[in-house]
Design a protein that fits this description.
Low-confidence stretches: none
Shape: globular
Order of helices and strands: HHHEEEEHHEHH
Radius of gyration: 15 Å
Mean pLDDT: 87
Number of strands: 5
Distance between the termini: 7 Å
Amino acid sequence: MKVPAFTLPGPVARIGARLPQLPPTLVLVTGLNLALDRLLPRDTLEPLTGKRLLMKITDAGLALRFTLTARGFRPLLSTATPDLTISATTRDYLALALREEDPDTLFFSRRLLMEGETDLGLLVKNTLDAVDWDALTARVPFLRAG
């Protein structure tokens, strides 16, 4: 499946920024927790424990704040300065998830921005690179092409 080039219209971001951010954050942390230990190695992610993470979906106006605890990923209600902020558009996150683009390409073309603790950013990037996406695709039928 090839993600078409698109950006959500400007009003979407303005509306999205005014909506409660907890529901989409809960969706994100649920997905991350399902992947934890199956795809995302908990021991590798250990340095993220207790860190404040912010995932911005720029064209949707979403700012999803979460952290990793001993019990898994959890939403953060605090608006304290995050330790790591990752920003991209909806399309670029989808392309990254579907492995149509790699994190380095998006980063060096300034379509994926990482701010804050650079070692955490490298950890996230390297973890994404290490995920066996083919194994995931084999186990989750709707992700298969065609």
